# Entry
Amino acid sequence: MRTRSLSVGALLALFVASIGLFAVAQDDKPKFTTKEVMKKAHDGNPKLCAKVATGKASKEEKEQLVELYVALSKNKPAKGDAKSWEEKCNALVAAAKECLTDDKAGGAKLQKAVNCKACHEVHK
# Structure
């Protein structure tokens, strides 16, 4: 009888652990696809990234851009080296975060990081 309750307890613990791993895996899933990020951050007139870079964006828009770039960094590149993708995405995230606190320095870094041709040449 004791062996049976240990087995049931072990199965229950395994079940709970697998649910926890599933929840963590869901958190790692990007909130936006690469295509969605490109559309929301780099399309429109004015473009969200340009508004943030020039200091004309609201706090909410700056936070939205950070959220978009964080999601972009969690996506896999369509092609090309994953390390290159990571470096380019990290530069975008860092510059966008800096824009939350310092528009001038962050804006210049963001304008430099948003280099469509450099990214599309190797990853699109």
In short: Helices lie at 2-28, 34-42, 48-53, 59-74, 82-101, 103-113, 116-123. The longest helix spans residues 2-28. Confidence is low (pLDDT under 50) at residues 8-18, 20-25.
